[in-house]
Design a protein that fits this description.
CATH topology: Thiol Ester Dehydrase, Chain A
Strand content: 25-35%
Distance between the termini: 57 Å
CATH architecture: Roll
Shape: globular
Largest sheet: 10 strands, antiparallel
Number of helices: 8
Number of strands: 10
Structural class: alpha+beta
Order of helices and strands: HEHHHEEEEHEHHHEEEE
Length: 330
């Protein structure tokens, strides 16, 4: 008997809706940025944000897809309070496969979000190491109190039988040549200049972002996203699951990918698409290295559209890869 049962197939198409009890709030935005180590002034300084063309402080791009602030319930046995499907699947471990984000407008502190989750597809696939696994695709759409779309998230969940060996990560590529350096640190109250065409041509590499994701930062991030899943901070809990250390929440890597781009491209850049595939677990204490390369540049409606391929490494091996599409002023 396969993993994809008739009962499981009936879950396809199910939807769940949530309305946050309150607005996002400036403190939530500041706390998220602080937990990630992101010091972009767009997230704390109204004057700076207005100079960049926004009405005021905005949230980091991936914040809306990562926060569980919309949830209003007690944590489950694993410590999680956000949306979960609780599928009738036994004898399997769930692995987060990746995300495809789309952003429609910046999230502001006064936004009160509504979230619609929909289970799109469940399919069974053969594993390269023998046996089968389930691939579950779900989507979430996020809107504000004015019914304006803020973002969407298409996520992939992988369910592997517990007796299957864990997939190993690829070895990744060797670290590349020297990168285009960061722009000089901006002075207090100043706005960095826009990059010129030569800075953005295909083949130009995104400045490297490196960050150590220690347990303190992981706990701070868990609080900032209302995600109390014990997998991310409880050594005894993860030891029972035969893991070497608490596991980094995979969505932290998406936040780092967007931070690397905005650090380089400046406060007027708007990331409207971001996707990443998780290829290996990252553990507490690992230092991650985000790299990227421009793959295309186009002009449309007085805007420049930039496409970037990105990868994240730990000790020289690829743990995540993906890419982004960014709008820049013309």
């Amino acid at each position: 008997m396969g993993l994809l049962t008739g009962e499981l197939k009936q879950w396809v198409g199910r939807e769940f809706n949530y309305i946050a009890p309150e607005e996002i709030g400036r403190a939530s935005i500041r706390y998220f940025a602080l937990a990630m180590g992101d010091d972009n002034r767009l997230y704390v300084d109204d004057e700076y944000a207005r100079a960049a063309g926004y009405p005021g402080v905005i949230a980091p791009p991936t914040f809306i897809c990562e926060t569980n602030q919309y949830a209003h319930r007690q944590p489950n046995a694993d410590g999680y309070i956000g949306h979960s499907w609780d599928l009738p699947i036994s004898g399997c471990r769930m692995i987060r496969g990746g995300h495809e984000y789309e952003f429609f407008q910046p999230v502001r502190s006064e936004d009160r979000i509504t979230v619609n989750w929909r289970l799109v597809d469940i399919s069974e696939h053969g594993s390269s190491r023998g046996g089968t696994m389930l691939i579950v695709i779900a989507t979430a759409s996020f809107s504000n109190q004015r019914s304006e779309m803020l973002a969407s998230n298409r996520e992939t969940l992988i369910f592997q039988p517990l007796d299957n060996p864990q997939r190993s990560a690829g070895t990744g590529d060797a670290v590349g040549p020297a990168r285009v350096p960061h722009a000089e640190a901006q002075a207090e109250g100043s706005m960095p200049p826009a990059l010129n065409a030569a800075d953005l041509r295909p083949g130009v590499q995104v400045p490297v972002l490196e960050r150590k994701l220690d347990l303190v930062r992981m706990i701070a991030y868990a609080g900032a996203t209302w995600d109390w899943a014990r997998l991310h901070y409880d050594p005894a809990y993860v030891a029972e699951r035969k893991l070497p250390a608490p596991v980094i929440d995979g969505q932290m890597l998406g936040a780092l990918l967007s931070e690397a781009l905005l650090d380089w491209l400046g406060p007027r850049a708007f990331i409207f698409k971001l996707n990443f595939r998780l290829r290996a677990m990252v553990f507490a204490g690992d230092t991650v290295r985000c790299e990227g390369q421009v793959t295309a540049l186009a002009t449309a409606a007085e805007q420049r559209l930039l496409t970037v391929a990105q990868r994240i490494y730990v000790s020289g091996r690829v743990v995540a890869d993906g890419g982004a599409c960014v709008r820049l002023p013309g």
